[in-house]
């Protein structure tokens, strides 16, 4: 990811390559002859047997992005729930969680442990753009799947040199396009100030937004960045307030998102429309600020909010809440990060079910050949789709506004594939 711009190329070559090589790679351990009539022979079966699947995940359980760590609990609860029902195609899942503290060098260490010591089938869920970028070269060389990484960097879907890695959530450019469309429709003369994390995550969303509003009446009039090691963003927020912008686009991770919201609330002389990006929109981020101080904040989402009573009778939500109480009693099931973990684990389940070969190659190909796959906790109208020239599983989002003590959806889901066309370099 250090070369995001250079790597952002069409994914068509990847899809063509994977189609040509599906179930034909002659490397690694032999898969059982019983799979696909022996067509899977010669493919990698490390980490998967007739009875088990070994998966590894790397999360910031500590450090400046530790709020994301609870995602692993949502993932683990899903797999425990599935194991109680007999597993995935009869295989019980063992999910091994490692902590990288949101430090890329540590992520590399943990990836090596998972692959070389734990012998995992796949490294499912590396969290964060920096950590994911740090390990994808290694995993690609080892031919270990890195499915559904917990980061929306657009490079995971545009790069054609790392076929073993793919994202899951809407990419940051697609999300930026949703905000751009909202502003050009609702505030066509908006003056926007931007706070962003100074890495590929922040720059990806900022760049996507600037490109999407180019030529419109919406103008970016001020920008301030921060480092993930900074203690606070108070100085940046003070500087942005002097711009007198009427919109604040907040491109932050949870810790800094909470700080920015609090700074905005304290500054009674500046009252911009505050748009916070999805990854910092959890109620767990807003609650410390005080719900009374975040009324009217806007964001976008693609999965059901477990705190929203609208979904109280939803069968998928009922299953999630019951399973979280049983398998993760020490966590808050209303935390959106837990719901995220459950939803992405359910998505991997669907991909594993669709493998033509029970091999690493089989999973690599399956996640790049999804056809309108439904997952219970995704919003109505949001499905998983990938294929030739399209390596972005989810590209539909819906706007939401914070009101009272929860987010409320508004408008219609925006399918950025149809609204804006495919991403290009």
From TrEMBL:
Superkingdom as given in the UniProt entry: Bacteria
InterPro entries, per the entry: Leu-bd, Peripla_BP_I
Leucine-binding protein domain mapped to chain residues: 52-403
UniProtKB keywords: Signal
PROSITE patterns reported for this sequence: PROKAR_LIPOPROTEIN (PS51257)
Keyword hit for Signal: yes
Any Pfam family matching the protein: Peripla_BP_6
Residue ranges of the TM segments: none
Signal peptide residue numbers: 1-22
Family membership: Belongs to the leucine-binding protein family.
Protein name per the record: ABC transporter substrate-binding protein
Source organism per UniProt: Streptomyces musisoli
């Amino acid at each position: 990811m250090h070369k995001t711009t250079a790597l952002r190329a069409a994914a068509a070559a990847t899809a063509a390559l994977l189609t040509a090589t599906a179930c034909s790679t002659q490397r690694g351990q032999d898969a059982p002859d019983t799979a696909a009539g022996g067509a899977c022979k010669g493919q990698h079966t490390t980490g998967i047997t007739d009875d088990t699947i070994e998966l590894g995940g790397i999360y910031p359980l500590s450090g400046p992005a530790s709020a994301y760590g609870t995602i692993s609990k949502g993932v683990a609860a899903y797999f425990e729930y599935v194991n109680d029902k007999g597993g995935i195609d009869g295989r019980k899942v063992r999910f091994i969680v490692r902590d990288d503290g949101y430090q890329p060098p540590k992520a590399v260490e943990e990836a090596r442990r998972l692959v070389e010591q734990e012998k995992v089938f796949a490294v499912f869920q590396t969290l964060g753009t920096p950590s994911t970028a740090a390990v994808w070269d290694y995993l690609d060389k080892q031919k270990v799947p890195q499915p559904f990484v917990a980061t929306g960097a657009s490079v995971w879907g545009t790069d054609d040199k790392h076929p073993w890695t793919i994202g899951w959530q809407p990419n940051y450019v697609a999300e930026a396009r949703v905000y751009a469309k909202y502003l050009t429709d609702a505030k066509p003369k908006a003056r926007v100030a931007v706070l962003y994390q100074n890495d590929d995550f922040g720059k990806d969303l900022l760049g996507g937004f600037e490109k999407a509003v180019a030529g419109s009446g919406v103008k970016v009039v001020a920008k301030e960045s921060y480092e993930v090691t900074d203690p606070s963003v108070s100085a940046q927020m003070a500087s942005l307030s002097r711009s007198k912008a009427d919109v604040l686009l907040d491109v932050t991770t949870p810790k800094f998102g909470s700080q920015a919201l609090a700074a905005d609330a304290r500054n009674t002389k500046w009252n911009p429309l505050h748009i916070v990006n999805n990854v910092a929109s959890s109620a767990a981020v807003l609650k410390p600020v005080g719900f009374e101080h975040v009324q009217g904040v806007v964001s976008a989402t693609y999965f059901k909010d477990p705190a929203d009573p609208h979904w109280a009778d939803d069968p998928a939500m009922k299953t999630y809440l019951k399973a979280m109480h049983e398998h993760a009693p020490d966590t808050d099931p209303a935390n959106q990060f837990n719901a995220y973990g459950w939803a992405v684990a359910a998505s991997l389940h669907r991909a594993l079910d669709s493998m033509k070969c029970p091999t690493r190659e089989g999973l690599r190909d399956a996640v790049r050949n999804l056809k309108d796959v439904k997952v219970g906790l995704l919003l109505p109208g949001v499905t998983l789709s990938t294929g030739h020239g399209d390596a972005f599983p989810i590209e539909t989002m819906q706007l939401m506004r914070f009101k009272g003590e929860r987010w409320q959806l508004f408008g219609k889901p925006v399918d950025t594939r149809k609204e804006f066309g495919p991403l290009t370099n």
